[in-house]
Amino acid sequence: MTTERIPFEQALKQLEAIVAKLQDAQTPLEEAVSLYEEGIRLSNYCAEILDEARLKIEQVNPNPSP
What we know:
The protein is 73% helix and 0% strand. By secondary structure, it is mainly alpha-helical. It has one domain (8-60). Helix 1 packs antiparallel against helix 2. It is elongated, with a radius of gyration of 16 Å. The chain starts with 7 loop residues before the first helix and ends in a 6-residue tail after the last helix.
C-alpha cells in the first residue's frame, strides 16, 4: 500500500482499521507484523501532513495570541 497522494482523512481511516485488526486476538502473527509495518508507514505519513499544516498555519499567523 502506498501512502503517496492519499488524503489525510483516508490515511487516518486506514490507520484506525489497522489498529482495530491489531487489537483482535484472532489476527495471525504474520498478518499482525505486516499490519504493524503498514501502520507505522501510515502514522509517519499522517504526522508529516500535520507538520506541513502546522508550518503553513505558522506562516500565516506567526504570532498567535496566548
